[in-house]
Design goal:
Blueprint (H helix, E strand, L loop, with lengths): L1 H25 L15 E7 L12 H14 L6 E7 L10 E4 L11 H33 L12 H10 L7 E6 L22 H18 L4 H4 L2 E6 L9 H14 L3 E4 L1
Parallel strand pairs: 1-2, 1-4, 4-5, 5-6
Antiparallel strand pairs: 2-3
């Protein structure tokens, strides 16, 4: 009988050890989560500091606050990233771009509740410090674009569509695109639009131009329709929303985005 009880105690101990080991091994280490899974956010911001945007010398406060809000909301997880591109005569060259990625690593899992709590608090503190730093640097970069005379003359907004096609990676997670612009396309040439000189004057004309230009853009630029269909666009005209012909220009872009299969909101 004593031998039987001894064996039972041994078996119980072994079972307990296996259970603990299995529980520890079965808990995923957040630090090693596959970064290709949906949830890694990508943000592309196009800042228009050209003459068509009012020829101002400083970043409008509404854009500054919007940029900070975007970063606070969209850069909270490891690998989330943001890229800022100025809109100018050679938008497709991506001259003047700025990038930042969330490099704060998630804490390793601990079997002790107190350790988990302290590591969680430390992680959240690091994330907040990163977000503050990212906001400061992004605003500083956007402000600098308004003092760079190289970005003043022309406004190649069509070129942003090629940049999106090249930069967006919807297979890795959601992609959101923000335009800080009045959206007045202004590029010289027989097959381009210069809304500063000849803007659309009504909804019907704007939509007719957009439908025609969508086909032209597909021929002139290197676009990836499958990428464009999987991004969400938000246009923020800011203080320029009330300028002459702004409503017709809005109708033009909404129809153009739709013709290219893109989801867009305008406010």
């Amino acid at each position: 009988m004593p031998r039987f009880l001894s064996r039972m105690r041994t078996l119980i101990c072994l079972a307990a050890m296996l259970f603990v080991a299995g529980a520890c091994n079965g808990t995923p280490d957040p630090e090693h989560i596959d970064v290709s899974t949906p949830g890694v956010q990508q943000v592309l911001v196009f800042v228009d500091a050209s003459a068509s945007a009012g020829n101002v010398s400083t970043l409008p406060s509404v854009y500054r606050d919007s940029l900070r809000a975007v970063i606070k909301k969209r850069l909270t997880e490891p690998r989330d990233r943001i890229s800022i591109f100025p809109v100018h005569a050679k938008t497709t060259s991506k001259v003047g771009r700025w990038d930042m990625r969330n490099t704060v690593r998630r804490p390793k899992w601990s079997s002790f509740a107190q350790d988990r709590r302290s590591r969680k608090l430390m992680y959240e503190s690091k994330v907040q410090s990163f977000l503050k730093r990212a906001q400061e640097q992004a605003v500083r970069h956007a402000r600098a674009l308004y003092t760079d005379r190289n970005f003043e003359q022309w406004t190649d907004l069509w070129g942003t569509l090629q940049v999106i096609s090249e930069e967006a990676q919807p297979k890795k997670g959601p992609v959101r695109v923000y335009y800080f612009s009045d959206m007045f396309e202004s590029v010289p040439g027989a097959k381009r639009r210069n809304f500063e000189r000849v803007p659309p004057t009504n909804k019907a004309q704007a939509q007719r131009w957009a439908a025609r230009d969508a086909e032209r853009i597909k021929q002139q630029l290197s676009l990836q329709p499958s990428v464009l269909r999987n991004v969400k666009v938000r246009v923020l005209p800011g203080p320029l929303a009330a300028k002459d012909h702004a409503l017709a220009v809005k109708m033009y872009w909404m129809r153009l985005f739709e013709a290219l299969g893109m989801q867009a909101t305008y406010n």
